[in-house]
Write a structure and sequence with these properties.
single chain, about 140 residues, alpha+beta, two-stranded antiparallel sheet, 2 helices, elongated
Length: about 140
């Protein structure tokens, strides 16, 4: 069985990478929420398309952290609404609406916030443990 060693700096670096990734995720979600009702500027044009963050593992101080690699467009279908008075309506009076579900985005935001808080707690706990260890060594 391999020996397990505690490396507080690696622990904090991994948690910090996750903080950055979740922060980026929250920015993408906030953009989706802000554009949930954004229609096209031209008749029959495509509205705002929901964005989805893509993460990848990344080496961090001898451990494996995470980073947001890119943001991809969600290829799911647009919703349509009948609104012939809308400037974005096509010839039949239908307006393409963004493929953003505000409820899903709100739940994703809550999940990202909780993950952010959990990683913040990891950093705070690692710092406290390191501080206590140093206090014990001084005695």
């Amino acid at each position: 069985m391999p020996e397990i060693r505690s490396n507080p700096m690696a622990t904090m670096a991994v948690a910090a990478s996750a903080l950055r990734a979740q922060q980026g995720r929250m920015r993408v979600i906030a953009e989706n929420i802000a554009n949930a009702n954004s229609t096209a500027r031209t008749p029959g044009g495509d509205p705002y398309r929901r964005q989805v963050p893509v993460f990848q593992p990344t080496p961090v101080q001898g451990a494996e952290g995470v980073q947001m690699l890119r943001v991809d467009p969600d290829q799911s279908d647009f919703k349509t609404e009948y609104d012939p008075g809308n400037p974005a309506a096509d010839a039949k009076g239908y307006v393409k609406m963004p493929n953003v579900n505000s409820l899903v985005e709100a739940l994703d935001m809550k999940e990202a916030q909780r993950a952010y808080e959990a990683n913040l707690n990891v950093i705070e706990t690692a710092r406290a443990m390191e501080s206590r260890t140093l206090d014990l060594l001084r005695k």
